[in-house]
Amino acid sequence: MKKIFNSLILYAGLFIAFILVLSCLQLYENANRLFGSKSSDSNYWLTFSKKLTPDNIGRKELLGFNENEVAKIKNWSEVKNIYPFSANEFKASANGGDFIPFYTDLYFESVDLKAIDVPLKEEEFQVNGDEIPIIISREYLNLYNYGFAINQGLPQISEDFAKKIEVNINITINKENKTYRGKMVGLSDRIHSVLIPKKFLDSLNAAAKLELGSQPKIYNRVLVQVKDSGDEGLVSKMKENGYESNQESLRSAKIKSKLFLVLKVIAVLGIFIFALCLYIIVSFIKIQFLEKQEEVSIKNSLGYSPKKMVSDISRKFSLNLMIVLILSLGLIALGQYLIAKSDVSNGLLSMYVNPFLWTVIIIIPLLVYFFVNILIYRWLLKSWKI
């Protein structure tokens, strides 16, 4: 009865160990699916700016990014590419004419078209005559519809209708005023700005400030394509250099890093329990041999191979281990299915556990079999001098 109780405790410990380790591996994959994984195929975008301090306020050369800083960021191992923003160096304003009676001072930025999340070809994002194609942040349209329009009694505008509206763009360069027609061609979820074609903006800046051609380029902000927005190394380098970005992205990075830390601690605990169970298995087998020392000695004298006797016992434990693993993975697979079906997954999680986890049903029992077999056999030869 005592032997049965000890065996139950042993296999219960193994069951807990496998649940902890294997569930951590599956949760690690789930976390990568929810928060994004670090891989060569992953694309995450962060807009870097510098923190305002008493030393750099009003000083563009300190507040912006120079060419050396852009090159340095591009060389970070966490960064895939970097796209600097160009900003207008001239005065600009917009008005809605008779349809939408509004007036506002305006700022423009431009960035490489490859970095903009609006499916436009190069020829579609060019100035034609006096018509300027404009891409604005989707948040700006939402602010107008749910804030400005409602409060001011103005008509709300859908995305499709916004693309049909033209606004007057007034640009002043060297005291000379020129009016263009601005037409929205897309909404960006990635970039919170008012974007116009880069070549056009650069040409206007060059005309507005001739000295820019001989001065080192300074960029107010940079758009950075990274492998993983939750990379602790990336967050650390940003903090080190005084760079800021979208706080929501950094918040998810902190959540992800803390979650992975908890998973690692749980996994280490599971591995410790598993190692402890292995030690108990070895001790258990040794006790069995000690209890049957006389029987084993007689069998050995009759020609039974000690290796065969050890192998039989090790095989028995390995098969029992396989059953425990199947039960553990079955429970994890059920949990994964229920989580994937729940609202928490947001449709991002697979309903099935990682196929690699099923291979442990074969790998771990085989490793345990060879480990226990060799260890017990050496102990048997050394202790009993067989």
Automatic annotation (TrEMBL):
It is a multi-pass membrane protein. The keyword Membrane applies. Its main location: membrane. Signal peptide: none annotated. Keywords: Cell membrane, Membrane, Transmembrane, Transmembrane helix. InterPro entries: ABC3_permease_C. This is ABC3 transporter permease C-terminal domain-containing protein. It comes from Chryseobacterium caseinilyticum.
